[in-house]
Every structure is written in structure tokens, then in C-alpha cells.
Please model this.
Amino acid sequence: QVQLVESGGGLVQPGGSLRLSCVASGFTFSSKDMKWYRQAPGEERELVATITRTYGSTNYADSVKGRFTISRDNAKNTVYLQMNSLKPDDTAVYYCNTFVYGRGYWGQGTQVTVSS
Model:
């Protein structure tokens, strides 16, 4: 079955960095676009970054452009989100996501807290 397992979250001071990982299984990872979303308390889930399956093209929400970088390692079935210059507004649970056979799948999420 399809599984997505995120890790790498934690507590970081403003201006700090974190790298999130999402290990995928149960499908052909290299054939799927992968996405990172986040959801802050009381807010809607927000698309943060996308990386395509074919050329690894990337797209970002305006709020994270220039600070976050999404990447993938198809040999390890893993997608990453490098987050630099973190701000308190980046505090949220971060989820990876993909679609397999027309159905969306989510990991359990990893908490990122940016606070001094």
C-alpha cells in the first residue's frame, strides 16, 4: 500500500534552517509529482512546493520563494524540503502528498515550530 512518512521537523529559532524528508513506498516514486503542504492551527492546508516527476521542475508558494527548496532522490524514494531563513509564520504541520491512481495520499505530518 502507498505510504508517505515525513521526518525532520522540530523547534528552531527565527532565521534558522530545517530539512524535512518524506520517504515513499508502495508505488513507483519516480513516476509521480510530489508536493509539500503545510497547515497552521486554525488555517486551511496550504500548498508549499511541488516537484515534477519528469524533469524535477519546481514551483513554490510566494510566501516561501527564495527560502525553501524542494528536491527529490528517486534512488531513495525520498522528497526533501530544505527550509532556510525560517520565520514564525512558517510554524505548521508539514505534509507530503502525491496522487496514485487518482487518489490523494498524505503522510502523518511533521511539526515545525519557529520560535525564540
Summary: DSSP finds no helices and eleven strands in the chain. The CA atoms of residues 8 and 20 lie 5 Å apart.
